[in-house]
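Final report, Chapter 2: Outcomes

The project's central promise was a pipeline that accepts a single protein chain and returns its three-dimensional structure in a standardized token representation, suitable for archiving and comparison. That pipeline is now operational. To close this chapter, we reproduce one record exactly as it appears in the project archive, with the input sequence first and the structure output second.
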Amino acid sequence: MTDWVGVLNNFVLQTFSGDLKTSTYPKEWDDLKMRISFGMGAPARVPWIAFIAPEMQVSKGFYPVYLYYKEFESLILAYGVSETEEYGDTWPIEVINSTQSISAYFDKKVPRYGDSFIFRAYKVKLENEKVYFFSDSSEHVSVTDLESDLATLLGYYKKVVSIPQTQVGTQPASGGTWGAGVFYMEKQLEDFIILNWNKTDLGKKYDLIIEEGELISQQYRTDIGPIDILARDKETGSHVVIELKKNQTSDDTIGQLARYMGWIGEAKKDQNVRGVIIAGSYDKKLDYALKVMKGVEVYLYEVDFKLKEFTN
């Protein structure tokens, strides 16, 4: 598989060369069409890389996209929205309501694509023909993080364009600083956590798992069924089994978590495997079980329903 960070580095470097050709870049990435533009006839002020579902076009659709704002030395991985022609659907309400637009992020009028939404923003530094990426807090962004960010957004996008959803407003809380947001239904909480991983307390302690550029943490396959989310401890490298307590009892959730932790311990030869339960409420059954079940944490989420009058 082509090295993604190598592709990204070449893209950034080419924006300064005046070369507008794109024939050396992949035409597909992770089962999506991949399109690149450095401009037509003259260099673009905002070159881009877009990943598009088969039924869409760059000029008519919504899609993940890298936008390189050269004058701001910023590369934005965005929830892209076509400026040319409006598409029938767009990004889910969870994105529109809880995510900053590019114009708002820069707090000024931008040359193009200001109505698209920020998924991740990187500061770009060039030194001796090498490209370095940094966060807004000036921390270096690793190759793993770059690959994880793209894999997470592409995985989410593919679910959005292929699975009709019923929208239900929510606001996560307790387990981490997610910010105001919404997800579709309780069964979609898992998608919401993956998409907002770096904004949670989980993301501060644990890393999602990427193999060959593909996110494999979500619904991780085992011989005894899929784990909701499998992560790794940032400090120790040990595995972390994360299970969501959905429509099941506390006893069922504890039993399921214990089985998966046991499987990971044996299959991955990891004797320090940890567990996490994410639940809507904390009850005495969980409390008693955790007194003797070491290495397990509980995070809580909240659902906040709101009604808003529609006006046109």
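Archive annotation: The chain has two domains: 4-155, 165-300.
This record, like all others produced under the grant, will remain available to the consortium after the project formally closes.
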